[in-house]
Amino acid sequence: MTGQTLQDDDEAWSNDLIASWYEQHNLIDDVNELGYEVDLYATDISDAISSLPGRVQNVHSVKPNVDPAGAVASLVKCSLYRDAPGS
């Protein structure tokens, strides 16, 4: 997407470096300029996500909706069977 690749000498393979690549003009902008909409499906760009709204159509904030007490209760129930004897 960015046209950039990490090199062995890049400092700590920095997430800040990768995020800065997404902030710069890149393939996403070129495709938009040609009149196309861009939808992005990726699991590894969480550090760059703030630079994508307005440039990528399907990126938006998601408010977490977790019931902490319910989640812990489910985990406790699952843990009850972790040491169950085998047959």
Low-confidence stretches: none
- What do the pLDDT scores average to? 82
Number of DSSP-assigned strands: 0
Please report the number of helical segments.
3
Report the radius of gyration as a whole number of Å.
Answer: 20 Å
Could you tell me how far the N terminus lies from the C terminus, measured between alpha carbons in angstroms? 51 Å
Tell me what you see in this structure.
- There is one protein chain.
- This protein has 87 residues and is mostly helical.
- The protein contains three helices and no strands.
- The longest helix has 12 residues.
- The N and C termini lie far apart (51 Å).
- The mean pLDDT is 82.
Summarize the structure.
With 87 residues, the protein is mainly α. The chain contains three helices and no strands.
Task: Please specify the SSE layout and strand pairing.
Blueprint: H1 15-23, H2 27-33, H3 68-79
Keywords for this entry:
mainly alpha, 3 helices, 87 residues, elongated
